[in-house]
Amino acid sequence: PIEIDFEAEGYDVPCIESSTINEEYQSYLAIIPGAALATIYERFGSRLLEQNVRSFLQFTGKINKGIRNTILNEPHMFLAFNNGLAATAEEIDIENLHGGKFIRKIKDFQIVNGCQTTASIFHTFKKDKADISGINVQVKFSVIKNRTNFSEIVSRISEYANTQNKVSVSDLS
Known about the structure:
By secondary structure, the protein is of the alpha+beta class. The chain has 7 helices and 8 strands, in the order E-H-E-E-H-H-H-E-E-E-E-H-E-H-H. Helix 2 (34-44) packs across helix 5 and helix 3 (62-73) packs across helix 5 (115-127).
């Protein structure tokens, strides 16, 4: 399992814990620095995306070109423009600091939606030498408590997080 120690690596990852209490899962909404995400992706590569339905589609498509363009030209707008990630974990360690909650460690980190975002940040940083210090990415973490239904729950999170209705230009007007 992929284990991340944000505290040891010097990254602050603020989060909000969902008040939902059930036997299946616990949710957290977090903000991960782009540099932390790039470091994690460089270290673990495709292992981080084993539960994801797609691999990186390069910068040939419109969406990934848009992600790259935002990183290069408007990094301060990345959080506003990007949908972020859906991820799962077996366990998350939280610490209360500065009046808020911060994720310190994650056990069995998997990105189930957000491969294009993650890989685009990494490749733009490496190939274009982009400054990603101002990039932040929102993440919805689902800590799966019910290990007997783990595969089914993760599969459904992946399916539903990857289901979108296309927005046409006429919808925007």
